[in-house]
Amino acid sequence: MVRLDLGSVVLRRMTLDDIESVKALIKEGCEGTENRLVLHLLTRPLALFMLAVLSSILRCIVHSFVLALVIPVFLAVIYLKLTLPRSTGILGAHRRYWDYVGSTYQSEKDSELVNPYSRMARPVGGKAKPQPQPQEKAKRRKKGEKDKAKEKEKHDLEDLEDRARVAGEVWVADSDGEVIGCLSREPANRPGVTRVCRLVVQSWYRREGVGGLLVQCLAHREKERRGSRRVYAHVPFPSRVGEAFFRKLGYRLQGEVADGEEVEDNDYEQPQRGWLGYPITKVFVKDI
Hints:
The chain has 2 domains: about 5-30 and about 95-120 and about 140-285, Aminopeptidase (3-Layer(aba) Sandwich); about 35-90, no CATH class. The chain has 8 helices and 7 strands, in the order βααααααβββαβαββ. The protein has helices at about 20-30, 35-40, 45-60, 65-90, 135-140, 145-165, 210-225, 240-250; strands at about 10-15, 170-175, 180-185, 195-200, 230-235, 250-255, 280-285.
């Protein structure tokens, strides 16, 4: 296998043309994760107790021990399969994973991260594309139609801005026009804090440093541009690979301290919770 040249990787904001590629990439990266989350939730003490109670009730109705045991588990699995992605998003994101359009809003501005491996450093952002000016023929339209068009455009722009605030930003790693990795920055709701999730790297390019490059470059940008002092990373609860990855980058599990140290009062980020309120993500933190 030919080793990937990290210097040739472009780290940029996701555009409208990238949406389908990013969806496919996240779907690939989530294979098995959803099943492990379902198993994790079903094996919690309260969940086991509820399933046992339902099985006891059904045992008196269907007069079959096997059916009484299988039916509650089957219904619980179907329920979690349908609701888990919609309520918690993918890979720890608390926003719905279908709202990518907002992430592309104004993606031409500050659209690239500085890649330290690049021999020819790219400017951070580059020139923004000029906005199209109103066409001359629009000026000849009737005043009523013009006002109506402007009102609709204003409404659409406000809706897109709202979606952008909800969706945050999605950054991708681009190698020769192919999206090989992605990382989501959640919308900033606390000063000095950055929250990342949905880190996925294409299977052919794993263990090549793409994921670490995305995380570290985005953290550097957040520190320089927004003054962030701390990064929180949400990792699916059953993912040991994700846990090892962030520990290698210098992150620590929230609340975990070295001998002789005390937990900081502000060292807290609410983990994502699933069925019956059980956490489905682990929170890792790093000061930058």
